[in-house]
Amino acid sequence: MERIAIDMDDVIADPLSKHLALFNKRYNENISIKDLEGKYLTEVRPELHQEILDILAEPTFFRDLDIIADSQEVIKELSQHYEVFIATAAMELPSSFTSKYEWLKEHFSFLNERNFIFCGDKSIIKADYLIDDSPRNFMGFEGQGILFTNPYNLHVTDYVRVNNWQEVREFFLK
Amino acid sequence: MERIAIDMDDVIADPLSKHLALFNKRYNENISIKDLEGKYLTEVRPELHQEILDILAEPTFFRDLDIIADSQEVIKELSQHYEVFIATAAMELPSSFTSKYEWLKEHFSFLNERNFIFCGDKSIIKADYLIDDSPRNFMGFEGQGILFTNPYNLHVTDYVRVNNWQEVREFFLK
Fold first, then answer.
1. C-alpha distances in angstroms, B150 versus B9, B34, B126, B132, B144?
2. How far apart are CA A60 and CA A66, in angstroms?
3. Which CATH class is domain A3-14+63-173?
4. Known catalytic residue: A9?
5. Chain B contact for A94, CB < 8 A?
6. B63 to chain A: which residues are within 8 Å by CB?
C-alpha cells in the first residue's frame, strides 16, 4: 500500500485566517488574504515580526482552527486505498503540541494516532507522497511533493499543485 | 552522510528506574530490575496494569529522568560523522510532549530541535539506522535496527545488540 504524508497547517487546518484576524484586531490593521500573495505576514509587516510570531506561540492558538474544506471526507476516502500519516513541523512551536494533538483527535478521529508525526525537518519522513504548502519541506524528501495552494506559494512552479481537496481526490483516486 | 535515528526512552533517557521506584513506593512493593528480565512491569503485576500505566501519564513524569550513561558524549561524537535524529513514540502518551521536549532541550542542547520526532509508528522514519530497545519498532523500518539492551529485551536474538553507549561508539566509529 502506498503511503501519503499530509501536512497539517494550511492543508487540513486553517491557522492563516485566525492568525490574520487576530493580528488585524490587535494591531488595528486591515490586511487581507489577497495582500499575502507571494509572501508571509512577517514580510508584509516586518516591523511587527516578533508580535506576529508571538500570536502563534499562544498555547491554545491551534486548538480551535477551522478545518480546510473537504479535507476530512477526502482523507477518509484516501485511507481506504493508502496509508495516511499526518506530519506537522510542530518542533518550531513546542507550545502547540497539545492543541495540535487534541485538534487531530477531535476532527480526524478516524485516523490512528500512531499515524501522527510531530517533527521538524520533514526529510526524515518515509512516504511516497507529501502534501504540503511549504516547498522547503520537499527538500530531501524522497517521494513526490504535492504543493497545496496557499497565498504565499502562488508563484512556486516546481511541483504538482493542488488547489483544494477535490483536486487531491482527483490526483489520487482518479 | 548516513543518518541514525535514536529512540529516547530506555536508550538516552531512563524512565524505567523512576517508574519502578515510584511503583514500589506507592504500592509498597519491592520489585527489582532483575525481576523484569524478559517482561514488562505490567506483566509482573497484571492486577495493577492501569495503575502502572497511569504513573507514566503524569505530565511531568518524563521531565527529570536520568540520562543513560555516556549517551551525551557518544551522540555528540556521532553527530560529527552522521546525521542524528531523536525519535520517540510520544503519541502513546500525549501528556509527555512538553516534558520530553524540555528534557531534550536541556540535556541534548547540541542537537537541533528540527531533528526531534514525536511519532507513533516508527516505520515512517527514513534513516539508515535505528537504535531502539523495542524490537517491534524495527518492523517496517527500512534501515538497520540496532537493539539497545534493556531487561525485557534480553531474550531477543534477531538484531545486532548494543549493551551500552560505549558499544554504540564501537559500532559506528570503530
1. 10, 11, 24, 10, 18
2. 13
3. alpha beta
4. yes
5. yes
6. none
The interface pTM score, or ipTM, of the predicted complex is 0.94
The three three-digit cell numbers of residue A30, written as one number: 486591515
Q: Which residues of B touch A3 (CB under 8 A)?
A: 124
Is there a contact between A114 and B127 if contact means CB atoms under 8 Å apart?
Answer: no
CATH architecture of B3-14+65-173: 3-Layer(aba) Sandwich (3.40)
pLDDT by residue, tens only, chain A of 174 residues = 999 999 999 999 999 999 999 999 999 999 999 999 999 999 999 999 999 999 999 999 999 999 999 999 999 999 999 999 999 999 999 999 999 999 999 999 999 999 999 999 999 999 999 999 999 999 999 999 999 999 999 999 999 999 999 999 999 998
| Chain A positions in Cβ-Cβ contact with residue B101 (cut-off 8 Å) | 91, 94, 97
What does the domain layout of chain B look like in residue ranges?
A: 3-14+65-173, 15-57
Contact B119 A123 (CB under 8 A): no
Q: Does B85 touch chain A (CB under 8 A)?
A: yes
Residues 36-55 of B with CB under 8 A from A: none
- Cβ contact A85–B116 (<8 Å): no
DSSP string, B13-50: EEHHHHHHHHHHHHTT----GGGGTTS-HHHHSGGGHH
Concatenated DSSP letters of A41-80: HHHHSGGGHHHHHHHHTSTTTTTTPEEPTTHHHHHHHHTT
- Chain B residue at shortest CA distance from A113: B91
- What count of residues does chain B have? 174
